[in-house]
Amino acid sequence: MIEPIGNQYVVARPVYSANAFGEDHKKKQRHHKTLLDHLKKLCRCSAQRAKKIAFSSFPIASWLPAYRIKEWLLSDIVSGISTGLVAVLQGLAFALLVTIPPGYGLYAAFFPVIIYFFLGTSRHISVGPFPVLSMMVGAVVVRLTPTDSAADSTFTNSSMTNDSSIDEQKVIVAATVTILSGIIQLLMGVLRLGFVVIYLSESLISGFTTAAAIHVLVSQLKFMFQLTVPAHTDPFSLFKVLESVFSQIEKTNIADLVTSLVILVVVFVVKEINQRYKAKLPVPIPIELIVTVIATGVSYGFDFKRRFNVAVIGEMKPGFQAPIIPSRQTFQDTIGDCFGIAIVGFAVAFSVASVYSLKYDYPIDGNQELIAMGAGNIFGGSFRGFAASTSLSRSGVQESTGGKTQIAGLISAIIVLIVIVAIGFLLEPLQKSVLAALALGNLKGMLMQFVEIRRLWRKDKYDCLIWVMTFIFAVVLGLGLGLAASVAFQLLTIVFRTQFPKCSMLANVGRSNIYKNRKDYSEIYEPEGVKIFRCPSPIYFANISFFKQKLIDAIGFRPLRILRKRNKALKKIRKLQKKGLLQVTPKGFICTVDGFKDSDEELDNDKIEELDQPINTKDLPFQIDWNANLPLNIVVPKINLHSLILDFSAVSFLDVSSMRGLKTILQEFIRIQVDVYIVGTDDDFIEKLKRCEFFDDEVKDSIFFLTIHDAVLHILMKKDYSTSKFNPSQEVEAKLDDFTINTNGGLRNRECQVPIETKF
């Protein structure tokens, strides 16, 4: 019963062990579903289930019929046009990161958007090229087509194409990698593996994207300076590219450098204005479109290509090209890279989609997002596009300009389509250095994540360490190996956190039912002879030894050592009793010798197995209080602990290996007459122990209690009951077989206590 009294409450209930609570409240025996049960449920079919599957597989069927034409259509059209113009420019710019002709970036900005319109669950993200994915695909392209001769040899051997054009070969490699990445995403979605994104923490993604921004920056230097830089894909490739750039810096094309720097400054300034005055501006200033139009006109009007020998986009063939047939050999060579591309692409898209779903209160499905992304990449790669995800800046444009649904995405795809089939030739005079500057202009947000370090350091040093190491791995090893190393390091930090948990000793605070770390409070209450130990992590094979050591450090002694010393002392006492050297009188023991000592040989012959067994005094006419001053120089360490409470409220699981270790720990304490109680576990925890035959005559399931306070009250009641049985008036009537050596040098039994007399 709970009675509120102002801002306090009074609870009146019995002291519950786990067993008693289950008996009083009629605990049910639940049936745990087997694999067969789950398969039956999965294969069950009904009209309602079929409808649910149809709507989840094609989310457009759920939101399109409810589309508000009058309220949303105009906003979606405006947003779609703005987003489409940005998508065109980003597609051209990010194609340079893939090291393929810019025109193919338009395919990556078109096909995935169409597929996502039908299959995606987010209403606000803009699907298309993303600089990090473009860099990862570009690294694979460079590795498989490092030089003209090597590329020809590679593709001849794999029977990929008879075309000798290096650009064509690069396009086919990029498309093949995109198709395989899409297949991986599609399979993961079908198999309901969307949860894998949880293994990429926010700190890891932040550090990785910042490192990718550095790679993008370095990769664009050759276009800004118009230098011929050899490709590098091995670890330390970033530094090799920098060395190559600065070793031929004197060959810089001044026109390209000046153009790119001017555009960079303008783009950064206007983006800052958009950010600072976004509340006052009706729509963000489309600075990318403005500088592209101006730069294209200036380049064409002043004939920059002929006069200054600048590099331009060149011929852009109108329309679409025939789909490709992916190479099996490339699949085999790039499976690891494609898996990383698939995971990163999904993680970024799902993260952005989650932000907008929370902001506008609608659900998204991670598995369906995988299917949509996978199908989009398969379709886009088949038509010579490269891997797509979502661009943070492009999604921001779509949302900030009033986009309500993926109708805006469809409109943006139409804008891209118009450029592909009709007006793409107008961009042929545009300098590649302009595209490089536009690509770098989108990196501000990624580079500004450096400020995350200070925030993470204040919040969690482990997260900060993950960010720093991910950044270092990705910069030094490259994006592919860097991602793998970062995930491995992150999992290692999880192991460290659980392998070396911050265990603590608890004490009662405020004489209530609240127990906190005894180091954090000055006014605490600790029942005499009771210790409360808290473990804040799962217990498994890797940390059971650490748990045991922390427990020993907290209580101040090793129970196994105490047990062995007591068994050795018991052996001596038993020998004295058998030889008649101890006489029992109504007044106590009388020792008839001055001293007794085992031979060294006898002491050395004590077997460890015998010393580790429970203490058995049934063959003696008395029991022994081991905290007594034992006679005949028999020394056994005294302990001031009679009850140990283990707080397992934060222990989520226990594996089989740690079960054996935990049982050994409990047995060691029980055998030295220290009662052990475990509190805070759920019923599944106890059920698992029962299934694994954890309990026996020593370790019983009655040691489990609901809360720490239940266990403490049980201990205090048990102690009071034991004390109340003492009756000094029965001193004369005591039987000889009931005597016990006690702590104050006396003999006592369960009913009485008499002084001891020792004769020397």
Automatic annotation (TrEMBL):
Signal peptide: none annotated. It is a multi-pass membrane protein. It is found in: Membrane. InterPro entries: S04_transporter_CS, SLC26A/SulP_dom, SLC26A/SulP_fam, STAS_dom, STAS_dom_sf. GO terms for cellular component: membrane. This is STAS domain-containing protein. GO terms for molecular function: secondary active sulfate transmembrane transporter activity. Keywords: Membrane, Transmembrane, Transmembrane helix, Transport. The chain crosses the membrane at residues 77-98, 104-121, 171-191, 197-218, 254-271, 338-358, 407-427, 465-496. Residues 520-715 form the STAS domain. The lineage of its organism: Eukaryota, Metazoa, Chordata, Craniata, Vertebrata.
